[in-house]
Amino acid sequence: MPEPKEYDLLIVGAGPAGMFACYELVNKNPKLKIGLIDMGNRVEKRTSKDVMSGFGGAGTYSDGKLHFTPKLSHERAFDVITPDEYQTILDKVEVIFNDFGVNAETFPKNPEVVEEFESQAQRYEIELIVRKAKHVGTDNLKNVIKKIQDYLEAKKVDIITNTKVEDLIIENGKYKGLITDKGSFYSKKVLLCPGRIMARWLQEISNKHKIEYKYGMVEVGVRVEFPAGIMKKHADSLYEIVYKVRTNTYDDIVRTFCSCPNGLVATESYQNYVCVNGHSNSDHKSPNSNFAFVVEVNLTEPVENSIQYAQSIAQLASTIGGGKPIIQRLADLKKGRRSTWSRIKKSLITPSLTDVTPGDISMALPHRIVTDIIEGLERLDLVMPGINAGSTLLYAPEVKFRSSKIKTTKGMETVIKNIFVAGDGCGISGTITGAAATGIMAARGILGEY
């Protein structure tokens, strides 16, 4: 049996956090011996079934939107870093992406039109959130990720794929290494950035080794699909449309995000359930557009585990859908009846995702969330006319897990010395660029700069 390998640093997860931490480290201290471990494949070997793991992380198969304004999920980092400092890191993330081939146009465009949208939203007590963004496209993003992978290997980073980390080796309260399904690895320090797919694992590890964290909120709802013309004016100026609407019955916040102009609805497969997402390819234009429409869920005592709550909803929806997402016309949802393929064919649009089960979303999602979605779309129609049409298609479940937020220093070190975290899996980011920024923060913490 070969001797276990020893490193200066092991990084768990080759998503944006792991990649950008590596980039920062190899450029500041080329002598570091780094092992980058991922449970999935190298990026060139990933398939459409490997959406959630592999080099590049879940973002590789996302819509390829990169955000560079510290709003929404970026704000989670403000517990440990000032917005101005964070913006500086976010600017560096943009430069690095550009260096590796991101040459997409920048949004928003047409400031006058954006002001018009903001003014209109304010009249109806709807909040429009405007962020600087670039749309790379799912197809182009994979090429960028491949260049980063090749760069890190050229810098002697040991990329270890198809290897699942099972536990930490901690002796007398001190970190020593990792236990994996391929044997043990040892290092002086470790950076845990396993992504959303392994957020629950990270929570279990934290419980076992007494790493402090607090539960985060989750977002539960649907993916909304409609004729592309309804959102065209918004997309041409903003590309990304983030509206926050407060509902009448429950006074809840429902918001749009992950808008995909001329995009496709896609399935995300987890271990025992499925969810939906959306993406847009840079060279393929669908006649439909889509966005997520979700309700913020932030549980308090006695049931604080919002992740488990959201997973139970996703599992129920998957059971009702026979292991597939559920699709329903908005008109059928409002009438309290399930959709059938014959009813869906009456819609103005053809579904972009057909490996689905026509059904009744109200059988899967809690009544409160269904009410919020119906009322939210009615309000949203005031600023996006046509979105509340009966032929609008809804896919469920759309669940965004905001992982338990692990307590860290500014340098992303946990309460256990030499154990660092970064990215979505530790609850401190929620986007590709946010994960990348926290990876750079962790790298600086590892180097002792913070």
From TrEMBL:
InterPro entries: FAD-binding_protein, FAD-depend_C, FAD/NAD-bd_sf. This is FAD-dependent oxidoreductase. Gene3D superfamilies: FAD/NAD(P)-binding domain. PANTHER family: DEHYDROGENASE-RELATED. It comes from candidate division WWE3 bacterium. Pfam families: FAD-depend_C. Residues 220-399 form the FAD-dependent protein C-terminal domain.
